[in-house]
Design brief:
alpha/beta, 4-stranded mixed beta sheet, 7 strands
Length: 129
């Protein structure tokens, strides 16, 4: 059986309208923003929003996207730990927001909402017959 190469979208990460609205509000309050998702347990598996540059990324992280959000003057970078991306690289990711309290380190925590990731397998053959 030969390997199948799955097509990748131009950007593996997108945001819902609700997440975009929250990002505009957080940008007004905190300045430029970034996301990092570590894949750890509990809140570590949720995307964490920080002021840009506050979370130090390195060789164990992958920049997945520079998100262009209407009303936010600069792109919002979305980083993920390389180990987590190795597990999720066949998915497309959507940043959404839901009611609830997330991690105290993520900027949305005081707002009574939390960011989360919705994922689905990236496109493949339509019919595997």
């Amino acid at each position: 059986m030969s390997a199948v190469s799955l097509p990748r979208p131009a950007e593996p990460v997108s945001v819902t309208p609700a997440a975009a609205e929250l990002l505009r509000s957080l940008r007004e309050q905190h300045g430029p923003l970034m996301f990092h998702q570590s894949g750890g347990c509990c809140d570590g598996s949720a995307p964490m929003c920080y002021p840009a540059g506050e979370f130090r990324t390195g060789g164990s992280d992958v920049l997945l996207a520079s998100l262009h959000i209407d009303g936010v003057p600069e792109p919002v970078e979305f980083w993920m730990s390389r180990a987590q991306w190795d597990l999720w690289k066949h998915t497309t990711l959507t940043v959404d927001v839901v009611p609830g309290r997330g991690s105290g380190f993520s900027l949305e925590a005081p707002e009574g909402v939390r960011f989360l990731i919705r994922s689905q397998l990236a496109g493949g053959p339509d019919d595997q017959g």
